[in-house]
Amino acid sequence: MTRKTCILVGAPVDCGKRRQGCLMGPDAYRVAGISSALTDLGLDVRDIGNVAPDDATAPDTLPDVVYESARMIGWTSALARTAEEAMPQGTPIFLGGDHALSLGTVAGVANHAAKEGRPQFVLWLDAHSDYHTPQSTATGNLHGTPLGYVTGREGFHGFPKVANPVPQGNICIIGLRSVDAAEREDLQGSDIRYHDMRSIDEVGIARPLETFLRDVAAANGMLHVSLDVDFLDPSIAPAVGTTVPGGTTIREAHLVMEMICDSGLMTSLDLVELNPFLDDRGRTAQVMVDLAASALGRRVFDRPTRAYS
Question: Measured in whole angstroms, how far is the alpha carbon of residue 138 from the centre of its chain?
C-alpha cells in the first residue's frame, strides 16, 4: 500500500487585511510540530518551504479602498501556480497566512481538478462568508473576497483569470456568525450552502456536513477544506485578528475533521488566519495542528471507514 504524501506549503500572506502578524503563521505551525504530527500517522511529509509573491501591478480600476491590491495579485498568481503543481504530488497543506491566500490556493486546485475531469468542491469552515468582491467590500480587506473570486464574480480587475470557477452549489460554509448586510443578500441569492451557528445549535454540526460529503462522493469530486482559526470560539483559539464570540467548540471542530478523514475525500487543506502575535504560548497553533492531524487520521480508536456513496 502506497503511503500518502502531505506537502507543506508555507503561504505567509499578510496583506489581505490591515492587522499584521499572519506572516508568522507558517513558522508557528512548524514550531508546533505539524510535520512530526503527520509523520506519526504514517504519512510521508515534504515541506517545500515558503512561497513568495510574483511581481505584479494593480490597475486603477480597482477601488482606492482596496488594501495592498498589487501584492495580493502577485500572491494569487504564485499560490495558484504552486497549488496546481503540488496537487499531482500528494495532499498539499497550505500554512497561512491570512484567508486571502485562498484566492490562489482554491483557484489552483480547481485547475488541477479540471485537468483530472473531476468537479472541485470546497468546505469553508469560517465565521465569515468571504464572498465579497473588491467592488463590494467596505473595508478593502481582500481576505473577505476569496469565495467571490473563485466562483467567478466580477470586479477582480488585474487578478489572474479564474479558468475553472467553482460552482456555487459545490461550496459549503459552516460556522457563520459575522456576515454584513450586502454580503448576506448576495449569499442568499446564490446556490452556496451555508450554515450559521444557530442552525448548528439546532441540528448539530454533523448533519449538514454529512449531506455535503455524500454529494462530494456521489460526484467523484475533489474536496478542498479551508479552515479559518475563527471557525473556533476565541476562548479556544485566541490568535486571530477577527475574533467573533460563539464559535465552535473543540469537540465540534474535531468531529468535523474526523468526519472529513472518515470520508477519505479531502484532497487539499488551508490552515489560515493564525496570528502568532496574538497567541498564548502557541496554544492556537497547537490546536490547529491537532485539527489537521484529525483530518488526516489521528483518532482515539480506529473504526471502520464510513462510505459516502
Answer: 22
Extract the C-alpha cell encoding 166: 467553482
CB contact at 8 A, 123 and 260: yes
Q: What whole-number distance in Å separates Cα of residue 29 and Cα of residue 227? A: 14
Q: Tell me, yes or no, if 130 is annotated catalytic.
A: yes
CA within 13 Å, CB half, 240: 32
For the chain, which domains are there? 5-295 (3.40.800.10)
Catalytic annotation present for 132: no
pTM comes to 0.95
How many angstroms separate the CA atoms of 168 and 267, rounded?
A: 19
- Is residue 116 among the annotated active site residues? no
Q: Over the chain (309 residues), what is each successive 10-residue block's mean pLDDT?
A: 84 95 97 98 97 97 96 98 98 97 98 98 97 95 97 97 98 95 91 97 97 98 98 96 92 97 98 96 96 92 56
